């Protein structure tokens, strides 16, 4: 299991923004598809967004479309999740996952490697 370095979570008021980062030292992430997932207490795990290694195709959950943006900085070997207009329902543990998938998937079943996550809490 590789070590993931995830950061950027925290407490933010509704309507605020956070940017999550994910890097995996030793992995050249542009060769891997990356997914962001979230798990909130009492709720099912949800695929938030993912970006494919092959063509950069991006997927978003309907619940975050228009508010969240996934991006990849190959020079920094880092994938970001910019989260804007945050809502209390976005409160969850967010984690990234990766695998050598040509096309990213919205369920983490397809990813062999997962980080420990960073907590995002949206509350006034």
Report the order of strands and helices: EEEEEEEEEEE
Q: What Rg do the Cα atoms give?
A: 13 Å
Class derived from helix and strand content: mainly beta
Mean of residue pLDDT values: 94
Strand content: 35-45%
Helix content: under 10%
DSSP strand tally: 11
Task: Characterize the main sheet.
Answer: 7 strands, mixed
H/I helix tally: 0
Shape: globular
From the N-terminal CA to the C-terminal CA, the straight-line distance is 37 Å
Unreliable sequence segments: none
Strand and helix layout:
Blueprint: E1 5-7, E2 10-12, E3 18-23, E4 33-39, E5 46-51, E6 58-60, E7 68-73, E8 78-83, E9 92-99, E10 113-114, E11 118-122
Parallel strand pairs: 2-11
Antiparallel strand pairs: 1-3, 3-8, 4-5, 4-9, 5-6, 7-8, 9-10, 9-11
Descriptive notes:
There is one protein chain. 0% of the residues lie in helices and 44% in strands. It has strands at residues 5-7, 10-12, 18-23, 33-39, 46-51, 58-60, 68-73, 78-83, 92-99, 113-114, 118-122. Strands 2, 4, 5, 6, 9, 10 and 11 form a seven-stranded mixed beta sheet that branches.
Short précis:
The protein has no helices and eleven strands. With 124 residues, it is mainly β.
């Amino acid at each position: 299991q590789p070590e993931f370095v995830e950061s950027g979570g925290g407490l933010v008021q509704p309507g605020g923004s956070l940017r999550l980062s994910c890097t995996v030292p030793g992995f050249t992430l542009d060769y891997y598809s990356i997914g962001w997932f979230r798990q909130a207490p009492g709720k099912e795990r949800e695929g938030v967004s993912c970006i494919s290694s092959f063509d950069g195709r991006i997927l978003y959950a309907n619940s975050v479309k228009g508010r969240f943006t996934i991006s990849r900085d190959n020079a920094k070997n880092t994938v970001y999740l910019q989260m804007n207009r945050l809502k209390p329902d976005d409160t969850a543990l967010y984690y990234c996952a990766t695998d050598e998938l040509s096309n990213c998937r919205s369920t983490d079943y397809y990813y062999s490697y997962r980080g420990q996550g960073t907590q995002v809490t949206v509350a006034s």
